[in-house]
């Protein structure tokens, strides 16, 4: 059975005619330029011409347009061996007796040539003259060439802006498709494999999105009671929580046309293109209604208007947003088109976009809790060949604060680690190594560290572990390591509790544990190093949050300077006076110093245990909870940790 040959790309053949024309045009100009002088003659040089002149072979010399010299020889000279080829074979194989026989080109300064020709014309029978030849066709072609070049460049840019070399010929309407929508259409004929069954966790968000799909499938169920279809739903959440995945599930479940695109698809360098694409998108959606439009990363066009008015009074992005607002709830709207949008920067969106009647629902897609993480792990473990005894609830406990995308990355990284170690299945340790790899970075055992630096790092990490062990509200310790990972030279790994609210004593205990590393250096070596930079950055942010955000400081009072609208970052002034700023700085300093002194007191009481723990770290490089219990004793707050588990 012979296969049919695929059809030729007609677009390529049609679209390249302009470039072929330009190349042919340049070649024509070149041929016409040299055609002025060739015309059956033979090219020579000026030095050779002078030898012909001295030998008396020259009969006539004509200087054409002050750049070409045509030379005609005498009949006697044509009989010489050096010139016989001119008489035997010329253009069209006809004898060229009259000439010209030779030509050569001269520069601007031809005074020496003219002087020699005048001297020769006085003594010998040599004719010398000037001629001017006009080539009007050449002049016309040179005149229109810049315009042809500009048109070719414009066509090239238009093709690139309208999607490259696919979907139509240059001679058609492809050039003018810049203002057309770039949305990808999914309908019942498309095989979208992702459904709501593939979305683990996110039960609340999934329920609201499912209701929108059900409304489009069975609108009478809701409209009989006088209800109206919501015009828009905004998915809000931190990156990686599954906002786009929810939209893909809608595309897989809905039996209506689904238009998918990104907010950046509206942004273009040409004025009016964004608004034109919005109009075209809604025109297509209304023609296929009932339908759904999904705009990912809507903050690309939905930012609050007026914030950048200093730089540009006529912002193209604002024009695009105005058109989107009009299409969603303007004078002429269609209630059978629903918009679903996703963003992780809801604080920067325009208030007009957020009002009821446009985005009627804001669906918050939070980070998964313990139960949801377990369900997400089960989804991502399906294609992975893992051990049958793998404890999925344990993996969910080891990943607090991880998003769905992070969990997917852990499963993939664990499979890669197992394959790297030539294992036939992925086990528990592979997943733990994957968590370490993602959180801490790549392990660098070959990093050059001196023995003195290694000892300092060991005491620093032992200080963290010792202080946190004797604090009630510090996160439970999992392991301590002095193996460099990423940018860190060592780390104490904790398993933080999943709290919905945080009290003052819990924040202070975390700050004290973070300062334990620097305190251990000062107690042991009587000097401190730069190794506590990340710890100091963390505690400073926490202390500032206590004073300026959460209102947990008695001296400042029940006041917050936090701005949830995001307007404060664009302001050049502080929301408090200079006197209050001094009080804030003083309170932040006192909070940090109090926790540092507290860490010093704990380590001074347990100086011997601190030294033993550091020596164990230098010996084993990685120690776990069992080593801590052996050296530091049973954790006095073990009950708190066991209830968590």
Task: Briefly summarize what is shown.
By secondary structure, the protein is an alpha/beta fold. It has helices spanning 10-15, 17-35, 46-54, 75-78, 84-88, 111-123, 136-161, 203-217, 220-223, 243-253, 273-287, 299-302, 316-329, 351-354, 370-381, 392-397, 404-420, 428-440, 451-469, 504-525, 533-549, 578-605, 607-620, 625-632, 638-644, and strands at residues 42-43, 58-64, 68-73, 102-105, 127-131, 184-186, 232-236, 258-262, 291-296, 337-343, 361-364, 477-481, 491-494, 622-624. Residues 1-14, 89-94, 163-175, 309-313 and 640-645 have low confidence and may be disordered.
Describe the protein's architecture and organization.
It is a single chain. The protein is α/β, with parallel strands linked by helices and 645 residues long. The protein folds into 4 domains: 37-134, Signal recognition particle alu RNA binding heterodimer, srp9/1 (2-Layer Sandwich), CATH 3.30.720; 184-364, Rossmann fold; 370-440, Helicase, Ruva Protein, domain 3 (Orthogonal Bundle), CATH 1.10.8.60; 451-644, Peptidase M41 (Methane Monooxygenase Hydroxylase, Chain G, domain 1). The chain contains 25 helices and 14 strands. It has helices spanning 10-15, 17-35, 46-54, 75-78, 84-88, 111-123, 136-161, 203-217, 220-223, 243-253, 273-287, 299-302, 316-329, 351-354, 370-381, 392-397, 404-420, 428-440, 451-469, 504-525, 533-549, 578-605, 607-620, 625-632, 638-644, and strands at residues 42-43, 58-64, 68-73, 102-105, 127-131, 184-186, 232-236, 258-262, 291-296, 337-343, 361-364, 477-481, 491-494, 622-624. Helix 20 packs across helix 22.
